[in-house]
Amino acid sequence: MTEKEYIAYKGATFTIEWYFDIHGKSQALEYLLNIDASMQQKVFYLFKRMGDYGKINDLTKFRNEGDQIFAFKPQPDRFLSFFTKGKKIIITNAFLKKSDKLPKEEKRKALECRKDYLKRIEEGSYYEK
Q1: Is residue 103 included in any domain, yes or no?
Q2: pTM metric for this prediction
Q3: Domains held by the chain: number
Q4: Which residues of 4-35 are buried (b: 16+ CB within 10 A; e: fewer)?
Q5: 113: domain range?
Q6: Tens-place pLDDT, residues 68-116
Q7: Is the dihedral of CA 96, 24, 129, 40 positive or negative?
Q8: What is the CATH number of the domain that holds 11?
Q9: DSSP code of 13?
Q10: Measured between alpha carbons, how far is 1 from 119 in angstroms, rounded to an integer?
């Protein structure tokens, strides 16, 4: 991947974007590219639903995980995210869910990504010019 493709889906209600770290890496996007096509379709179905309608009522598909972190839940994968200004949802990290509880380490990663994103947005250094 040479140029960063931030937008995963642009809907009528929300734009869903990939989070990129300071080195230009997106763990969630890399994860998506390494799952099979049928799983990718499930992910994009949920992104499209949220982007177009602004909500997913099914808690088995989208859920508030606390601390302003939300999970898109295409079984058995999880894509953690947060809402931000400009009607955006930023996808921070993704993983294969192996237990009933959200792993603390995955939530910690999402919170760190959120903090880094907000800091770099404030500095004006997140999006490449």
Answers
A1: yes
A2: 0.95
A3: 1
A4: eebebbebeebbbbbbbeeeeebbbbebbeee
A5: 7-123
A6: 999 999 999 999 999 999 999 999 999 999 888 899 999 999 999 999 9
A7: negative
A8: 3.30.2310.20
A9: S
A10: 25
